[in-house]
Amino acid sequence: MAVTAPWLGALGGWSPEEFDKTAIDPYLGGLPLGSFGGIGPEHWLGVEPVTGRDLFARVVHGAQVSLLIAFAATAIVVVAGTAAGIAAGYFGGRTDAILSRLMDLTMSFPSLIFMIAMLSVAKDVNRIVLMTAVIGVFGWPGVARVVRGQTLSLKHREYVDAARVGGSSSWRILTRDILPGVSGPVIAYTTLLIPGMISTEAALSYLGVGVRPPTPSWGQMIAESVAFYETDPMYFVIPSVFLFLAVLAFTLLGDALRDILDPRGGRS
Residue 238 CB: number of other CB atoms within 10 A? Predict the structure, then answer.
């Protein structure tokens, strides 16, 4: 849905920023006309109160924004965390000490407060890029710890010692011997990271420091719907259901991959 958002939005016949004043009642504070928030052949998921913007178009485009931030932030976290974890576990000594202290420092930092402060202060910047960078900066230590532990268990295996004795460089050993050994847990951990990233983006947008209007976002839509939850509950329910389904889907996918890739750590 997120990938095909422009075509799905066009199929519905409305753009996410297009107003439809004929779908709302100006004498009732701009509430949607009809039952269930204006759901009907013209507007498949109803319309926004006051503005009359099509909820279907805003939900599918909001999926694109929310998942783009979640996937990009997850990519930053996984790449940075894997690199730091492999380096700390393989080289040990001072490298391990410095990177481990950096992990501890980042994990102990009040990340949510810092995110809110950074996003509140930065005004004239691309909000999607800034949110991706800020979320990614605070997420890598978890991956790094997992990879570091896995690397410590792999670096003394016979095939790694054989490669080292055979004259292989550290880079070749890390990329050919260590990295494939940690890829399974990293893939499983990645799919479990995505639901948290989606929720973080939604929470920041809900607090008003995330994606700015008129760019749609699920968290932003939920925040705007709070004022109408008694008079137009569907405006609150629809983006909340899509957010719930996305988080649930990636959580189940992560659990399944973890059980497949790491049977010893899975459920019996």
Answer: 23
